[in-house]
Design a protein that fits this description.
Radius of gyration: 18 Å
Structural class: alpha/beta
Largest sheet: 7 strands, parallel
């Protein structure tokens, strides 16, 4: 059986779906080729679990071509950081050359050419690149990860975000649900829709803060961006999140995409994880 390539397999601070996908597939007895950036304790753990580990840079064709050799299915994810479009183009070219049949790629709920954040628009471009490579791309358009709110709170006792009213509505999802759908699609034999919208719970920001046991405090977007850079340490992540929060504030009471989607239960076999469930497991 050909190995399934999983990028982002070491995990990370933005949800770590690649790590969860790799572990889920390994537990199911499937061979996994785990693509990681560098050696560390997480890499050793993957090897102990039975993964074939390859190291490299997703933006570098000399790293990606050997990683996709002999592979027919892959999970592609890239952090909210600089280089996502470069990595997508490299991966698409290598995957087409290797004749991959299915690539599950993490995107964002509002991905569109006129989306409200630059990074959402970049994700739409990335989707077009993967589609044109004819590699069976399935795009997981995911809502805001619960983990993003956790990072925003940090070790404080407030959820301070430029979201305006506490009644501003947020589409949310657990990273584990995104990974669960990704692993399910990779294991599926039949045809799968090329775009899957993923949202597990719809809450107001006030309700979300209550679940975390903190107060919601609205702040100015520019002030938030200035302080957020020390927490996220990535200008692209801060750019995206600043636009995202202010976009939600402008939408206010909701949007047609703000609904719990059936794809989660379809591919995981269970209801979506709620924020309350997520926090009880932490």
């Amino acid at each position: 059986m050909e190995p399934i390539l999983v990028t982002g397999a070491a995990g990370g601070s933005q949800g770590g779906t690649g790590r969860t996908v790799a572990e889920t597939l390994l537990r199911a007895g499937l061979p996994v080729r785990a693509f990681v950036r560098s050696d560390d304790a997480r890499t050793a753990e993957l090897e102990d679990l039975g993964a074939e580990v390859v190291r490299g840079d997703l933006r570098e064709i000399t790293s990606v071509r050997p990683a996709v050799r002999g592979v027919r299915r892959a999970y592609f994810t890239y952090p909210v950081s600089a280089g996502m479009l470069d990595a997508t183009a490299v991966f698409a070219a290598a995957a087409r050359e290797a004749d991959l049949h299915r690539v599950v790629a993490v995107s964002q709920l509002g991905s569109a050419p006129d989306a409200g954040t630059p990074h959402m628009r970049r994700h739409w471009v990335a989707e077009q690149v993967l589609d044109r490579a004819e590699i069976g791309a399935v795009h997981l358009r995911a809502a805001v990860f619960f983990e993003n709110l956790r990072v925003a709170i940090g070790d404080s006792d407030v959820l301070a975000l430029p979201l305006g009213s506490p009644d501003t509505v947020l589409p949310l999802i657990a990273a584990d649900d995104v990974a669960g759908v990704g692993a399910g699609v990779l294991r599926a034999d039949g045809p799968v829709d090329s775009v899957l919208w993923l949202a597990g719970e719809i809450l107001t920001v006030g309700e979300a803060a209550e679940h975390f046991g903190v107060r919601y405090v609205p702040v100015d977007a520019e002030d938030w961006a200035e302080t957020a850079i020390t927490r996220y340490r990535d200008p692209v992540a801060v750019e995206h999140l600043t636009h995202l929060w202010t976009m939600f504030a402008a939408i206010g009471s909701g949007h047609e995409l703000f609904r719990v989607t059936e794809s989660i239960e379809q591919f995981t076999g269970r209801p979506p994880i709620t924020l309350r469930d997520h926090l009880s497991r932490a």
